[in-house]
Amino acid sequence: MTDPVLSVEGLCKSFGALRATDGVTLDLRPGEIHAIIGPNGAGKSTLIQQICGGLSPDAGRIRFLGADVTALPVRARARMGLARTFQISSLAMEDTVLQNALLGALGAAGRPWGFLRPALRDAGPRTLAEQALERVGLGDVAAVRTAELSHGQRRQLEVAVALTLSPRAFVMDEPMAGLGSAGSQQLTALLAELKADAPVLLVEHDMDAVFALADRISVLVYGQVVMTGTVEEVRADPRVREAYLGDAP
Ligand SMILES: Nc1ncnc2c1ncn2[C@@H]1O[C@H](COP(=O)(O)OP(=O)(O)OP(=O)(O)O)[C@@H](O)[C@H]1O
Fold it and tell me: What cellular component GO annotations does this protein have (predicted)?
């Protein structure tokens, strides 16, 4: 089997007496979408924050691209290509769609942020930004002010910004939240294509999207992974149906 891109082993984080993650072990393999599902308060956000570097684990290890990144700060992990999207929108609403994508591309090129104007004429980052916008289907609205985009288009733009960083793995926190069914379907189609660029660790409450997208699903309950399996395996598991899907066993 090929080495995982990202792996966590025995990850623990407590808040007082509460074990928010309690020995979580899972991995993200090349080319896959690995969804993490679980009831409210199961520890999904706590897990994602530890993976991205915003929270230090009490115990356990995080490896990314073969390196132990457990002690690295958020920025260092991002520079290695760990792209987190969605929960905290970083878009500048008054700027155009292209300018937002360009800010990402400039960051990727390691340039100082202040030189935006000359960089707009600089073919390198600009090309990268335009390609990313085309890729997510926003090529036609590059000159539009970001505030004028629909909710779904903003999600697409956040993906484009992440793409300019040449990610090696995406970590997505509830990308479907707040989208109507048309927006969810559009974003689902985009995410299905994105895993070819880099694998996706996906925390999502929208089960239609999870079942349509996931290659593997891990179910988190009270901070513990109760199972990892394919969509079919997870749907059929009586513990999952009881604990999460709300069905009587
Ligand atoms: N900073 C914190 N201080 C104290 N308790 C916290 C903190 N962050 C999270 N918790 C608690 O840890 C548990 C796990 O929370 P977490 O947000 O990780 O769950 P979640 O699965 O992401 O939930 P949701 O689906 O509602 O977003 C919850 O009981 C929550 O109240």
Answer: plasma membrane
Question: Both 77 and 172 in a single domain?
Answer: yes
Q: From ligand 1's centre to the CA of 23, what distance in Å?
A: 16
Question: How many angstroms separate the alpha carbon of residue 43 from the centre of ligand 1?
Answer: 6
- Above 0.85 for ipTM, yes or no? yes
Residue 86 lies in a domain: no
Neighbours of 32 (CB within 10 A): 17
Q: Mark whether 160 and 171 lie in a shared domain.
A: no
Q: Tell me the sheet residues that pair with 85.
A: 172
CA-nearest residue, atom 4 of ligand 1: 15
Give this prediction's pTM.
Answer: 0.89
Note whether residue 148 is domain-resident.
yes
- pLDDT category at 2 given cuts 50, 70, 90 is confident
Residue 207 lies in a domain: yes
Number of Cβ within 10 Å of residue 195's Cβ equals 18
11, 15, 19, 220, best to mutate for ligand 1 pocket (most atoms within 8 Å of CB):
15
**Closest atom of ligand 1 relative to the 220 alpha carbon:** 21
185-237: pLDDT as tens digits = 988 999 999 999 899 999 998 888 999 999 999 999 999 999 999 999 998 88
* 157 in the same domain as 187: no
